[in-house]
Amino acid sequence: MCRWMAWSGQPVLMEELLFKTQHGLIDQSLHSRMGAETTNGDGFGVGWYGAGEGPAMYHSVAPAWGDTNLRELAAHIETPLFLAHVRATSGTAVQQTNCHPFRHGRWLFVHNGVVAGFHQMRRELMLAVDPDLFADFHGSTDSEVIFRLALTFGLEEDPVEAIERAIGLVEETARKHGIENAVQASMGLSDGVRLWAFRYSTEGHSRTLFASTDAHSLRQLHPDNPRLQRLRDEDRVVVSEPLGELPGAWAEIPEASVLIVQPGGDETLPFRPHVEVPVSA
Amino acid sequence: MCRWMAWSGQPVLMEELLFKTQHGLIDQSLHSRMGAETTNGDGFGVGWYGAGEGPAMYHSVAPAWGDTNLRELAAHIETPLFLAHVRATSGTAVQQTNCHPFRHGRWLFVHNGVVAGFHQMRRELMLAVDPDLFADFHGSTDSEVIFRLALTFGLEEDPVEAIERAIGLVEETARKHGIENAVQASMGLSDGVRLWAFRYSTEGHSRTLFASTDAHSLRQLHPDNPRLQRLRDEDRVVVSEPLGELPGAWAEIPEASVLIVQPGGDETLPFRPHVEVPVSA
Amino acid sequence: MCRWMAWSGQPVLMEELLFKTQHGLIDQSLHSRMGAETTNGDGFGVGWYGAGEGPAMYHSVAPAWGDTNLRELAAHIETPLFLAHVRATSGTAVQQTNCHPFRHGRWLFVHNGVVAGFHQMRRELMLAVDPDLFADFHGSTDSEVIFRLALTFGLEEDPVEAIERAIGLVEETARKHGIENAVQASMGLSDGVRLWAFRYSTEGHSRTLFASTDAHSLRQLHPDNPRLQRLRDEDRVVVSEPLGELPGAWAEIPEASVLIVQPGGDETLPFRPHVEVPVSA
Amino acid sequence: MCRWMAWSGQPVLMEELLFKTQHGLIDQSLHSRMGAETTNGDGFGVGWYGAGEGPAMYHSVAPAWGDTNLRELAAHIETPLFLAHVRATSGTAVQQTNCHPFRHGRWLFVHNGVVAGFHQMRRELMLAVDPDLFADFHGSTDSEVIFRLALTFGLEEDPVEAIERAIGLVEETARKHGIENAVQASMGLSDGVRLWAFRYSTEGHSRTLFASTDAHSLRQLHPDNPRLQRLRDEDRVVVSEPLGELPGAWAEIPEASVLIVQPGGDETLPFRPHVEVPVSA
Fold this sequence. Notes:
4 copies of one chain form a homotetramer. Chain A is α+β, with helices and mostly antiparallel strands. Chain A is built from 9 helices and 13 strands. Chain A has a 7-stranded antiparallel sheet. Chain A is globular.
């Protein structure tokens, strides 16, 4: 059920991470090791920050491993921050409007996981979306509903709180319908400056999600690796499954937490879905 | 904004009408003469009754004139009743789930036209759809909303009344929003036995829609035309623009009316959109 | 590197074999057990005999497992003889003209396997094709070259001899170029009446290929299986990997042989590629 | 039969010329005024020079007017030199490998026009291509054959001479087959530094092709047009049909000539197809 990755750091050609890395995301589209499905061939998307107004997106219904255009774009677009996503549908149509990332203004959002019983709850959850955001529903996925719920709950002001309320509402609605283990989610979010990586599931047993450890340590650990020597301190990769098998290179993002990659120092916060009033209140 | 056609009668290969007829629907996709747009290249679809359970559909986002598969299917599928539709989007995504016909059980539905101000009314209209039908929204068109509204209002029992109520609700909602000339619609509907062809617009100036005149007269008018001599009395074509330029072959379906093609004799009824209580009550 | 199947027998809806059978071809597109690749997601095709002139084809670049149209067609097209193919490209473009089956007049051809060193030999092999057949090259696969070579060598008169000469020429050309193990091929061929299933490789270690054993025995072996009780004596399935796991249901087609399914009794012949003069001469 | 454009000058977002200009190329895809066909909806492509190694390409079989990805890329890719092409097929398959530009190393090539009797000559012309270039034939168009012939004749050393010999060979071959008016061609070519725009037809009545006049004059002619005031002296557009209707802005490229846009001063040369030995010898 999908794999995704994000890069934040020095400008790179996207192919460096998508194609030229051992077990990169495109390889994961064909041979996922840790996913619920080994094949993620139901379309893909990339979103990046660079030239022009706001983030750009490229979506395709072709499998990522065989898409000639993706190979071209990845080899010729340089960016300091991008998100990429390969999809394994849990039933909704294979169409570009169901491909991630989803975008709103400067914001990009990707999701790996599933909302259990979504079919039953779809109407109720869509109704909870701000009417002004309703007409812009382009696709039919649970992921887009989560994103628009989060926008409804103030994503642009307080992203973590907004996602917590979006997931909280889904869980609350599921409870009313007697649906168990409603949410399974690893999610990526960016405004072009910061990058959020969420890992959460109702059952407390979430899809894998990893972040690269700090570049300084990596360079010291592997002084003979020219690729790693080029890494700068601000470079960070987040990905569903580790790229390559380098000891010390990857740290699992903990259950029920969110990693924030940002200028001035990354941080990891607990992620606690709730309804309306914050749990801590 | 779209062109469509329907056939009801003796079993034919679909290509007879789609490709081998002068100014057939595929030609109309490239060179429409009477449409709001000359090009209808934003996908297409056909639905037919034949082998297997219920009607079949083939949808594609390619322009109909260049789709190799359509040419193959049309040349090898024989059917006594089919609907075909070429699309010119008024803004919604070019994707298979937005291609006509739409289907529910044994029912197929196509629509040429537009709901003015749909973006503003989308949420309200979707909410009026039976919750049990809501989760099956696959695409994002106004046409699918009209179809699901009609299903909500009893399409399977009384199709004309249901479509009248669906259009009536759209008009009523538009009035509340101060939207003028809300509906522009020529619509086709079938259950595999009967065929309904609706022509209506709020402003009383609807898109063109024609039906072939009775086969008996045609054969007498053109005794030397072998194609027409093969026509049987029950054969009937409905189409946005006349195929060919044969004198006496086509009759315009009147404003605000519905033609019902059916065993035992066709009939034309007035079409009067209304809310809840029938206008005649 | 591709999987394929063929049906010859009583008329069936294609979905019976493609979707409703345990480990059917569509499942093999996602989870091949015996192929060189587990995923066959680089397009697919079906060809069938039925209404209209000659065989029909449907080709798509989408993965077979997710193609809505394939599901529709399979559920609504009934045919006594069809071939289906799911593709895993060995490098050539993912495009409809590279999807199998290939067609010429009443003939359909599918191929699973690869020509080693094809890139080097492509020009030479294409030059050996009858100039009158050259202009009809639509795609860029080795498979299409084999098919056009066989047509050049009299496929329509003596299919086995023609395929033997086509493969023989490829092997001869490879020898000149110092290419080892030139051909790896399981191939299906039909004229709408008979069905040929070839299994061959230069190295004598060919891709798997199975045929269903005779219906009479199957019914006796499994008297309680309603599906098998419906089988008629003339029904035959050929497939890259057995459907289901029924004891006694499948016989491997031997190395270097061809099974001919035909009215009046099937036969298996040796398959001996050669150049010009038949080996037996 | 196709429309194309090229930009050489200051770095711009491609959308400036493709979408934001009056009667830009995307509009020409739907409403060509001067082409042999009004609709150019059989796929499209763009090629550009920028980040990464060599030129990048994006090809699609969708009509350019409706392709969401093209709109995204055009709005977010900045480049000092690009070629764009919208296709109306003269019969060959609608597939990405038949979309322009074609690429070899640093070179990009686009073609609007047709080779008469190509079907008859295809084999002979393909045989004239350098065997080392043969295996890289990806598509089935006459345009790709012209490009590979020109590469065979030294395109990378002397582009004008090479294209003259390629066209010369096509004309010579056509004469042998008794085909009249063999070539109809407006062609664009670039190596990332220079831009060549060819206009030629055997009959001496070629498809239209225009170049923007010099920026200095344009600024003086239209002192109040802010868009034109931003133009720099090195900026040049070549296009099948003028963008907008600005007096003085466009000069037709003469029959049988080639415009070379290059640093240090553009030039226009006669274009004289010939076989082997230059006509001037």
